[in-house]
Amino acid sequence: MVKETVSKESLIWANETFLKHWSFVRYIAILKAPDPVLTDDIVNDVYLNFVQQAERWDVNRDPRPILRKLTKDIAGKYWQQHLRSTPEHLRKIAERIEQRLESREVNMDPCDLDDQLSALSVCLKKLTERSRRLLDLHYVQKIKLTRIAAEQEQNLNTLYSQIDRIRIVLRNCIENFLKTEVPDV
User: Fold this and answer.
1) Distance (Å, rounded) from C-alpha 33 to C-alpha 28?
2) HSE (side-chain half, CA atoms, 13 Å) at 31
3) Distance of CA 163 to the CA centre of its chain
4) What's the pTM?
5) How far apart are CA 177 and CA 182, in angstroms?
């Protein structure tokens, strides 16, 4: 619900501005949403937040950076809710990635990190069930490849090759995904 403290002029400006940039917000929401079904919910939440805070925005500045940040923040909240309802093995993968990223003391732009995590999520879903299972066993459950090879009666070198191929596929998928994202304006 929109607060009554927002002036009529600000409200009109916020509505017109949002409508003008609706497709931009929707595109970012599609990229950042944990599930495509949630895209419209994210867009609606961005609209409500943008209008509620209409007094804060400078009408002379480009609103796209604000809309992009609002969309990313709200999609992040949806991701948190989504992770609570995700299967345990996927949650472990996400936590492990987060731990690895935190352990590196690299000065990365948080927006780049968000984009990379979104890309990783999309790319993991594109992998075959067998590849995801191998990643889960080796990286999440921390089972050594020698043990996996023995249990699955596979050649150890074959498993090493599979892991290498999966890494290459993920790396290429993430790079392609990041190339297609809308640049900051």
Assistant:
1) 8
2) 24
3) 24
4) 0.45
5) 11
